[in-house]
Amino acid sequence: MTLRRTLLVGLVLLALAGWLAPPVRWEVEGLSMAPGLMPGDVVQSGWFPPLDRFRRPRRFERWTLAAPDGAIAVKRVWGLPGEEIGIVDGDVTVAGRLVAKPPRALAEMALPVMAASRYVTDAEVRLVLPDPVFDDMPFAPDERRVLLPVSDVGVAAVIAVERSDHGDARAEVEVFVASRGVRVRLPRPGRHAVVAGRLDGAFVAAAWAFEPQRDVRSCLPPGGLAAWPFHQVWDRAEPVMSCAVRIVASSTGTPRVVIEDVVAWRDVHHMAPASGTTRWRLATDEWFVLGDYPGGSRDSRHWGPVLIDRFRQRLAPSSR
Fold it and tell me: Looking at the structure, do residues 61 and 115 belong to the same domain, yes or no?
């Protein structure tokens, strides 16, 4: 192959890559994926969106897909081919078992809970929660329905760790949700998110470092992990009446730790459709998708499972 022909092929490939590579963008209409996505938000796919045609959607990913009426909708993947999906007491089950959504997905769905009272000291912040916590939607004040109690609630804190002269110094906080507690280590200076609570049949907890960001809509601090490093089975018998974040007693060489903010959160409460159907058996080529705002979403509860040819692009993880 001559040099000129090689250059020509290279330019053609470069132009083709430039045409195929840029993300696809959409403007959000409606509240079906609120609070993470609100009307007017612009979301996008990842780079090289045509490659999404060869991806198999994974649980908790957000995808655009063709709805039965032909419109492009954004939904979250919950059920995978061959699974049995159920809705039980507001939670989604897979083969009869609850699956805890990861911190990143929770951040896109969780809603703040207004504490009934708050007790603050230099070393501890304790929130007393309303009993029960209801699934009201602050972004949809005109919604008219019977509110339902939500069992999955927790606490999120922003913890600042100052730099220490002792290289091996460590900072620790304790997080309590009802009678459950866990000690969390914050290994380096800076701001840290600490999130814990009852979620999908488990007591979960995680911490991660983050940089402050503007226009953060979630009640959870920005960032998040792909999985919960602390995960312990917890049934629904015990009501969550209070949450607390406490700095572990300091010792020589321990850096100064400041609790900057503490909020309570609740998980999404899924509702069965008007038909009363609560279980769906997926074929080997079907997926089950839901909106994050059950009261304002048309999804697989109404359409039934969707085939792979309905999916268009996977939203980028940081898309909003």
Answer: no
Report CA torsion sign: 55, 61, 67, 70.
negative
Percent of the chain exceeding pLDDT 90 equals 65
Residue 17, judged by CB atoms within 10 A of its CB (0-12, 13-18, 19+), counts as exposed
Indicate whether 280 belongs to any domain.
yes
In degrees and rounded to multiples of 5, residue 126 shows phi and psi of: -120, 130
Average pLDDT in the chain: 88
237 and 108 within one domain: yes
Instruction: Please write the tens of the pLDDT for every residue from 14-24.
Output: 444 444 578 88
CA–CA gap between residue 40 and residue 30 (Å, rounded): 9
Lowest mean pLDDT among 135-139, 232-236, 311-315: 232-236
Number of domains in the chain: 2
What's 72's domain CATH number? Answer: 2.10.109.10
Bridging pattern class, strands 133-134 and 149-150? antiparallel
Give the pLDDT confidence score for residue 222 in this predicted structure. Answer: 84
